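ARCHIVE CARD
Drawer: 12
Card no.: 0347
Subject: one protein chain, sequence and derived structure
Cross-reference: see card 0346
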Amino acid sequence: MTQFCELAGNESVKLCPPLQRLKSEHVPLRAQMKNLYELSVSIEKEKEMGRMKDKLWQLRNGVIEFVTLLDPHSEKEEGVLFPMVANYIGKDVGPIYVMEYEHDQAKGNLRKFLEETIHVEKCLNSIVILEMAEFYNQAYHVLQGHFLKEEEILFPMAEKLLTSEEKIKLENQIGTI
């Protein structure tokens, strides 16, 4: 892992436009995630079942909207950036393995949340509602750390590894997603 840290470096690296674009996409995603997390946490404070269901329904609608923004961002990384970086460092261990694993974890939790909350109105138990909300909370925590790792390790590493031609290819390919 030391070799990967050396590639990323500790100094501030100026990112090329496509890497900066991916990093910039984290800003609205992070803000939306935070708002949804605050809504999720507020469910725990509700005493009345009807209000819990209403908030869980709001959370569900917010997560649906969030996923429509997250999916194209993830595709840019999984379909374009990760394979380009993996050509240099491999994908079975190290940063690319971790990034793909975290994508899978977050998507799995979001998918499970959406599956479990389809019939919110039929839920009669506050414990079940809290368990449903926890799937979102888990995705939130994974993505918080994940974005930070991309910004501090993966993007600077990609900046150092990718050739000028590969950066142009990256820009062209993520521009179509």
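Annotation on reverse: The first helix runs from residue 2 to 8. Confidence is low (pLDDT under 50) at residues 1-6.
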